[in-house]
TrEMBL record:
It comes from the Eukaryota. InterPro entries: Gfo/Idh/MocA-like_OxRdtase_N, GFO_IDH_MocA-like_dom, NAD(P)-bd_dom_sf. Residues 8-128 form the Gfo/Idh/MocA-like oxidoreductase N-terminal domain. This is Uncharacterized protein. Belongs to the Gfo/Idh/MocA family. Residues 145-262 form the GFO/IDH/MocA-like oxidoreductase domain. GO terms for molecular function: nucleotide binding.
Length: 362
């Protein structure tokens, strides 16, 4: 291979379940290769490689995270560790000049995230969180139509939801319900998507006020299992709500309401199909005479995808890394900024919950 064709070498730090999906994405991405896997023990890392048919003569297996970070051939790391471990290991990765694809939620709070991003900036490495849906071509198409003022008008309201009910084993033993591991619970795991989608629809503008809503549920250890919140933009006169839960039926809804149109879909986080995804779009809808029907039905907009969205995420991240390595480009600031705004709103929801549902002014 020529230098321009050399793939970005990824290392995976932590063998969480989501790492199975991302290891496949690295394999599918044309500009990436999986170079190394690390876990707290070499047995666990080896078992992960065997289970997912990853073993090869070129794959390195490490029994500690530090060993992987010391590998000079690793360009970038994907890090699906418990959120409580992000601060330490993300900074270690940045200081070893490894570009960082960090699983969400990125940190326990924005102060921790700022330290991670600062380490990435000081060391000239790319930061991105692993929210896959941003990278699907459907997301770009939706934004194109929402930004069309004639079609859509001004964004007036948004609603998003992310919920699932994985069962009692999850609720008792998963790291996402353990206060010392992923203490943000459903707010961090599922709410991260909801908040991200709302900010995306508002062009990454922070709300004026964030208020948690009644109905917060916690487990016996105090970890959030269900919550919802409202966000309000005073200048734009726009309102948004979201709902996230570990004890409710599967939902991944996103609805954006404009003054001239509406956009909605039921699978914004994980599309129903890998090869294409759709959304419903309506513009200029009216009731017919006597209000016995409508003058139109929603338009179903179908968007094809050559690769699964997680592979597109890897491909984009690797392209940014390659540009830094080959062309001495600076890291793309869009992605850390997007993560930071999401973390700020998540922190505000958490604060509102902790203060008895009081509004938090941003």
């Amino acid at each position: 291979m020529s230098n321009s064709e050399t793939p970005i070498h990824f290392g995976i730090i932590g063998c969480a379940e989501i790492a199975r999906k991302v290891s496949r994405a690295i394999y599918l991405s044309p500009n990436s290769t999986l170079h190394a896997i690390a876990s707290r023990s070499i047995e666990k890392a080896n078992n992960f490689a065997i289970k997912n048919n990853l073993l090869s003569n070129s794959l390195k297996i490490y029994g500690s995270y530090s060993e992987l970070l010391d590998d000079p051939l690793v360009d970038a790391v994907y890090m699906p560790l418990p959120t409580s471990l992000h601060l330490h290991w993300a900074i270690c990765a940045a200081e070893k000049k490894k570009h960082l694809l960090l699983e969400k939620p990125t940190a326990l709070n924005v102060e921790e995230l700022d330290k991670i991003v600062d380490a990435c900036e000081k060391n000239g490495v790319q930061f991105m969180d692993a929210s896959m849906w941003y990278h699907h071509p459907r997301t770009c198409k939706m934004m194109e139509m929402i930004l069309d003022s004639k079609l859509f008008g001004h964004v007036k309201a948004i609603h998003s939801s992310s919920s699932y009910s994985p069962g009692q084993e999850f609720l008792e033993n998963d790291i996402r319900v353990k206060p010392g591991l992923d203490g943000l619970g459903a707010l961090g795991d599922a709410g991260w998507y909801c908040i991200g989608a709302i900010l995306w629809a508002m062009n990454q503008t922070l709300p004026t006020t964030v208020t948690a809503l009644p109905g917060v549920a916690r487990n016996s250890a105090g970890v959030i299992l269900t919550c919802s919140a409202s966000l309000y933009w005073e200048k734009e006169e726009t309102v948004a709500t979201f709902y996230c839960s570990f004890v409710s039926h599967e939902t991944m809804d996103l609805r954006v309401y404009g003054s001239n149109g509406t956009c909605y879909l039921y699978d914004f986080i994980i599309p129903f199909d890998e090869n294409s995804a759709s959304f419903n779009f309506t513009s200029g809808a009216k009731f017919v005479d006597l209000h016995i029907g409508w003058n139109m039905k929603p338009q179903v907009v179908e968007v094809a995808s050559q690769l699964p969205q997680e592979a597109l995420m890897i491909q984009e991240f690797a392209s940014l890394v390659k540009a830094i390595k080959v062309s001495t480009n600076k890291p793309e600031s869009k992605w850390p900024r997007t993560s930071r705004l999401t973390q700020l709103v998540l922190d505000a929801v958490n604060k509102s919950i902790d203060t008895g549902l009081q509004p938090v002014h941003m």
